[in-house]
Amino acid sequence: xxxxxxxxxxxxxxxxxxxxxxxxxxxxxVSQWESGKRMPRADILPRIADILGCTVDELVRPNS
Length: 64
What we know:
By secondary structure, the protein is mainly α. Helices cover about 55% and strands about 0% of the residues.
């Protein structure tokens, strides 16, 4: 499971904010990651972590 929603909310960003900072066109991608319908590619996790001010570990481990 990916804990993007937790880190995103802690960073004070909306799904749209994260989407825009990642340069994504699809409005549904971040929502799908957070709902577990899709998983982000491994190569994008460091970018997500950098934007959210956390580590990749915090995105993938429940108690990090």
